[in-house]
TrEMBL record:
InterPro entries: TAXIMIN_1/2 (IPR055283)
PANTHER family: SIGNALING PEPTIDE TAXIMIN 2 (PTHR33834)
Record protein name field: Signaling peptide TAXIMIN 2
Assigned keywords, A-Z: Membrane, Transmembrane, Transmembrane helix
Transmembrane segments: 12-35
Origin: domain of life: Eukaryota
Keyword hit for Membrane: yes
Length: 75
């Protein structure tokens, strides 16, 4: 049969980890907002923009976790 993109087992196993990464994503959003404000106040500090970039990675984390788990477990 053809390959199906539906992998419910991977989704269900990855769900607790996605919830944990969702909490980290909220923390990342707060860090991103604070880092963006600080980089606007003092544009000479390059570390604040790097901090904001790391926070954006944390915000994208739940989607990456679910995709990783669904790709690891076949139907």
């Amino acid at each position: 049969m053809g390959e199906s993109k539906c992998r419910p087992l991977g989704f269900l196993i990855g769900l607790p980890f996605a919830v944990l990464s969702l909490v980290l994503s909220v923390v990342g959003a707060v860090i991103w907002i604070i880092g963006s404000m600080l980089s606007c106040l003092c544009p000479c500090c390059i570390c604040f923009s790097g901090l904001a970039n790391c926070a954006v990675g944390l915000v994208k984390l739940p989607v990456k976790v679910i995709r990783w788990f669904t790709h690891q477990i076949p139907c």
